[in-house]
Structures are given as C-alpha cells and as structure tokens.
Amino acid sequence: MSNYITLDKLEQLNEIDELSKTKLQIIFKHSTRCSVSSMAKRGLDGELRQATATPFDIYYLDLIAHREVSNAIASRYGVQHESPQILAIKDGKSIFDASHSDVSLEDALKA
Questions:
Q1: Average pLDDT of the segment spanning 71-98
Q2: The domain spanning residue 84 has which CATH number?
Q3: If DSSP codes are grouped into helix, strand and coil, which group holds residue 88?
Q4: Mean local confidence (pLDDT), 69-90
Q5: Total domains present in the chain
Q6: What is the pTM of this model?
Q7: Among 36, 56, 57, 108, which has the highest number of CB atoms less than 10 A from its own CB?
Q8: Is the peptide bond before 84 cis (omega within 30 degrees of 0)?
Q9: What SS3 class is residue 82?
Q10: Which domain holds residue 63?
C-alpha cells in the first residue's frame, strides 16, 4: 500500500479538509472481510500503478478496525456508509462518492 496514507484517527479528517483546499483528497474505505471490497481494492491498486502524476493524496481506511472513523466520514461528508467506498474531498466537502463495483479512481478524479 505504498501509495496510500493510512487513515486511522478521527483527527486526520480535519487535516484532510485543510489539505483539500489546495489538493484533491481521496478516501478509500475498505472492508477486509468482504470479497467485493477486495476486488475493488485490486482495481484501485491497478489504477494507482498506472497513474503517471498524482495530483491528489489517497487515504486507506480499514473500516473493520476503525469503524468510528468510517462513521465520522459518513456524518461529516453527508454520505451513506458503504463498503467498499471511494470519496473525493475538495474544499472540505465530498464532491464524489461511489461504492461497490463503481469504485474508480478515474471517476473520482473527473469529479
């Protein structure tokens, strides 16, 4: 997970909001117990390997281990909790979210 920043503390959401004022922030919520989530992560990993430039930061949240962070994301950004799920954060707001087979870095970056 070399491209990912581990998201495991509630305080990081404030940092993400601040950073999102100058650089797109991506959050990937992953359930380590779900095969659909594992497939989505493999697809995302492939997209990251192919990305030539990274005009964004990408965070990885193990939502089984850090459910309180996942719940805070749903509340803060006004999205329904799902997994797997990808969110694009700009100016402290979610401008894109998708889940399950719709998880796509390319789509998040288009937002």
A1: 95
A2: 3.40.30.10
A3: strand
A4: 95
A5: 1
A6: 0.93
A7: 108
A8: yes
A9: coil
A10: 4-110
Is the CB of residue 29 less than 8 Å from the CB of residue 7? no
The pair of three-digit structure tokens given for residue 88, joined into one six-digit string: 């694009």
Token pair in block for residue 66: 């850090």
Q: What percent of the chain has pLDDT over 70?
A: 98
- The full DSSP string for 34-63 is -HHHHHHHHHHHHHHHH-S---EEEEEEET
Residue 48 reports pLDDT greater than 70: yes
| CA–CA dist 67, 58 (Å, integer) | 18
Looking at residue 87, its pLDDT comes to 97
Paired strand residues for 94: 89
Region for residue 100 given its phi and psi (left: phi exceeds 0; alpha: psi -120 to 50; beta: otherwise): left
DSSP-derived letter for residue 84 is S
Q: Could you tell me what percentage of the chain is helix, strand and coil, using 3-state DSSP and rounding each to the nearest 5?
A: 40, 25, 35
H or E, element range at 108: helix 105-110
